[in-house]
């Protein structure tokens, strides 16, 4: 289900080109998201569309309704093709279409899904045959950024055997030793300071306008989170790290792509709807006390504090008492302002615990709040 864009546009939409896929996958850990939101059967959930994976993950919790929003039609085309794939394909075929596993039949798999697409989504994907052949999970600007890093930058720093060794299971002490002695070299630090700088990330990975409210050194903060992922967490179990370093998912898979979650998502697809609208626009017209759970991705850091607070006001009005809101901070600190503390409670202890186990490691903060 799709609607045309209307009314209130987001701040981010006015500053960057959203006519193409920016994120072909959700680079946010759905295990953490689901634990934070604690979706109950019968809940109504609102979710930022992005690549579609985490919106689909919400369906495993038996909500009454999941409302996906994205003002970028290309992102909704990602979600819509995934919905068609869950309906038409088997689990292993879905993984092939995504690019999680090797395949020589992605064109055939897409042709099976194509009749289930809307005319708009069909036109979009028909015009992107290369992305179909490579796997639809490779199609975004962010994924191409990592592909360039994997193919052209990382080989200058670490050998293939060392990269394979990084992804092998180890105890925490072994991981720390490996990182300090074999991974965190002067080449690694130099490369990281350049490739993950504000200018290079803005040009190749995200968008320069996304850094408007970022203060301080970007690469240094990202490097701290990478160390956490390589030492405190186990790289062997991290699907996001596997994709960054290899270009596919090995044994570890994101939540929505795991075999044990496939049928639950498929059974509940009729509870999902999607709209080509900004969160600002949708929430301005949403009935009061109508939404239980909010997956807001990291959209708040792309807007000014005033616009962030205005969107929170709309969210609180549309949310039910006891409803939960979850979102990430990548490089910009966004959390409930003090003047809203009587209407929005910060669940800081839960958020901090979940952030420590977040496998999508580049975020500096995870925020969980509850409508009072």
Would you list the SSEs in sequence order as H and E?
A: HEHEHHHHHHHHHHHHHEHEHEEHE
Query: How would you sum up the global shape?
Result: globular
Neighbour order of strands in the largest sheet: 3-2-1-4-5-7-6
Tell me the span between the first and last alpha carbons.
32 Å
Report the structural category: alpha/beta
Global mean pLDDT: 91
Relative strand content:
5-15%
Give a quick account of the main beta sheet: strands, pairing sense, barrel closure.
7 strands, mixed
Task: Give me the Rg, rounded.
Answer: 20 Å
Low-confidence stretches: 2-8, 210-215
What is the share of helical residues? 40-55%
Beta strand count: 7
* Count, helices: 18
Would you kindly provide a written description of the structure presented here, covering whatever features stand out?
The protein has a domain at 141-246. It has 18 helices and seven strands. Helix content is 46%, strand content 11%. The protein is of the alpha/beta class and 372 residues long. Strand 4, helix 17 and strand 5 form a beta-alpha-beta unit. Mean pLDDT is 91; it is low at 2-8 and 210-215.
Keywords:
disordered N terminus; seven-stranded mixed sheet; alpha/beta; single chain; 372 residues; globular
Secondary-structure topology with pairs:
Layout: H1 30-37, E1 44-48, H2 53-58, E2 65-69, H3 73-88, H4 91-98, H5 106-113, H6 119-126, H7 129-134, H8 141-153, H9 160-166, H10 172-183, H11 186-195, H12 198-205, H13 218-232, H14 239-246, H15 259-267, E3 272-275, H16 279-285, E4 291-295, H17 305-318, E5 319-329, E6 344-346, H18 348-356, E7 365-371
Helix pairs in contact: 3-5, 3-6, 10-13, 16-17
């Amino acid at each position: 289900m799709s609607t045309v864009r209307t009314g209130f546009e987001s701040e981010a939409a006015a500053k960057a080109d959203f006519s193409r896929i920016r994120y072909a996958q959700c680079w946010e850990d759905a295990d953490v998201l689901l634990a934070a939101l604690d979706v109950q059967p019968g809940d109504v959930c609102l979710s930022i569309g992005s690549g579609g994976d985490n919106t689909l993950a919400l369906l495993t919790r038996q909500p009454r309704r999941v409302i996906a929003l994205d003002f970028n039609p290309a992102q909704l085309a990602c979600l819509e093709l995934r919905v068609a794939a869950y309906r038409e394909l088997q689990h292993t075929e879905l993984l092939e279409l995504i690019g999680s596993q090797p395949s020589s039949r992605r064109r055939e798999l897409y042709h099976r899904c194509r009749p289930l697409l809307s005319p708009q989504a069909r036109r979009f994907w028909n015009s992107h045959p290369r992305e179909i052949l490579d796997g639809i999970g490779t199609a975004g600007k962010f994924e191409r950024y990592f592909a360039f890093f994997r193919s052209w930058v990382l080989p200058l720093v670490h050998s293939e055997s060392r990269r394979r060794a990084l992804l092998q299971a180890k105890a925490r002490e072994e991981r720390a030793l490996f990182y300090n002695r074999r991974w965190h070299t002067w080449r690694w630090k130099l490369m990281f300071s350049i490739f993950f700088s504000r200018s290079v990330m803005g040009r190749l990975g995200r968008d320069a306008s996304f850094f408007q409210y970022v203060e301080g050194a970007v690469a240094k903060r990202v490097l701290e989170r990478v160390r956490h992922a390589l030492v405190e967490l186990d790289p062997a179990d991290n699907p996001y790290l596997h994709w960054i370093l290899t270009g596919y998912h090995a044994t570890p898979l994101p939540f929505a792509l795991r075999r044990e979650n496939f049928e639950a998502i498929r059974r509940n697809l009729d509870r999902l709807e999607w709209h080509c609208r900004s969160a600002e626009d949708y929430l301005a017209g949403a009935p009061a006390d109508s939404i239980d759970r909010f997956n807001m991705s990291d959209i708040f850091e792309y807007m000014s504090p005033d616009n962030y607070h205005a969107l929170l006001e709309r969210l609180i009005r549309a949310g039910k008492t006891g409803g939960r809101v979850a979102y990430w901070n990548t490089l910009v600190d966004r959390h409930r302002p003090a003047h809203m503390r009587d209407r929005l409670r910060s669940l800081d202890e839960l958020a901090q615990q979940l952030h420590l186990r977040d496998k999508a490691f580049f975020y500096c903060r995870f925020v969980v709040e509850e409508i009072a």
